[in-house]
Structures are given as C-alpha cells and as structure tokens.
C-alpha cells in the first residue's frame, strides 16, 4: 500500500456515515469558534505588529496630521507625491507647493509612477492581530498601482473606527468584489540564504499614521 492509498482510505473511513444524497454545498456548517481573541488594546496591538513588520508607526491628531505628513515626505526627500482623488485636502495642507502633486489617473503607467517619490492614502480597514492594513481602492486610496510602484507609502488609519481585532472581522467589512490590497509592512522578500531585500514588489518604506479622532 502506497501513501496515496493510505490517505484515500482515511478519507473514505471519515465519510463512511455521510448519506450519499447529502450535498456538502447545501448543508449548513456550524462555526462555533471565536472570530477574535479580543485584545485589551486593539490599536496598541496593531501598532506593535506593524512595527514588527518594519513599518514606521506614528500617532497623530487631526490638527497634527498635516505637519506630520509634510515631515514624512520631507524625510524621504519627496519631490512628488501621488494624491488619490478623494484624499482629504487638509492632509496635504502643509506640504510645500514645490512638491509636485500627481493625480491618480487611469492612464498612469508603471513607468510614470516609478518616477514619483511618494504616495499618501487612507485605508479601508486595519487588522490588529496580523498588523495588516487593507486597501479597497476607495476614493481616499486610489487605484492599486499607485501604492505598489512609488518607493514610499504614507497610509493613514483612523483609530479606533477602522481597526478590527481579527481577519474574520476585517472580512466582514470588506466587499470581495473590490480590488483588495493587503499590506503587512513594507514590501520585502528573502532568498534561500534568508537575506532580506525590501522594495521588490512594493514600497521600500511604509509609514502608517494612526489618526486619533
């Protein structure tokens, strides 16, 4: 008896008491497990896990946000920034005029976006347990490409409203028909020698601003 026969035999034994007419697609499945471990401080856990993924985490009030965004762009020496159509204009109010605003346009190409230094967006939801920020191409986030090509991404998360404990809770807030981008830290990969390389298929630096309303 080979391994395949062993596995199939176990499957048959496990299904021995299932009626032949039963359709698994139509049978209700009880899901009694918890969808969250209910962390005492979901925002704090999100910040901790984002930092563990090497994202740079900042806390801000609405009054402080324009100055913080301007400082983060200046630290990267950004001469240009992509601006989604629905981004609140006050977020960029203190960014110097000489920093070129690049609108998010359908005709954008990867080559054109590669010449842009930074992008500033909002988010759809942030997941505390995994340190993940999810974008769904909403008005303040723009098309997926604008957050994948520029080397620097500033993402603003409204807390606590946009923070959930777990992935199941996050999924309930998202529309699966929308283009979803799940971000856990700056883009990175490792080769067989475990040498970490950042910026391979996304921004090399991710600044996450936790905006406390």
UniProtKB/TrEMBL annotation:
Task: Supply the InterPro entries for this chain.
Answer: FTHF_cligase-like_sf, LUD_dom, NagB/RpiA_transferase-like
Q: Which residues form the LUD domain?
A: 47-211
Which Gene3D superfamilies does this chain map to? Answer: NagB/RpiA/CoA transferase-like
Q: Which organism is it from?
A: Streptomyces zhaozhouensis
**PANTHER family given for it?**
LACTATE UTILIZATION PROTEIN C
Q: What is this protein called?
A: L-lactate dehydrogenase complex protein LldG
């Amino acid at each position: 008896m080979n391994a395949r026969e062993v596995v199939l035999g176990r499957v048959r034994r496990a299904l021995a008491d299932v009626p032949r007419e039963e359709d698994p697609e139509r049978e209700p499945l009880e899901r009694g497990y918890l969808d969250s471990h209910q962390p005492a401080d979901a925002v704090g856990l999100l910040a901790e896990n984002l930092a563990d993924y090497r994202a740079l985490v900042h806390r801000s009030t609405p009054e402080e946000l324009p100055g913080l965004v301007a400082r983060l762009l200046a630290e990267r020496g950004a001469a240009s920034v992509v601006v989604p159509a629905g981004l609140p204009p006050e977020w960029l109010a203190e960014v110097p005029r000489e920093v070129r605003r690049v609108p998010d346009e359908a005709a954008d190409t990867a080559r054109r976006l590669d010449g842009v230094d930074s992008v500033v967006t909002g988010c759809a939801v942030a997941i505390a347990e995994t340190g993940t920020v999810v974008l769904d191409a909403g008005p303040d986030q723009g098309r997926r490409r604008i957050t994948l090509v520029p080397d620097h991404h500033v993402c603003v998360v409204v807390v606590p409203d946009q923070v959930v404990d777990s992935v199941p809770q996050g999924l309930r807030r998202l529309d699966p028909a929308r283009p979803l981008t799940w971000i856990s830290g700056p883009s990175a990969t490792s080769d067989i020698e475990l040498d970490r390389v950042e910026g391979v298929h996304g921004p090399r630096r991710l600044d996450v601003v936790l905006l406390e309303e």
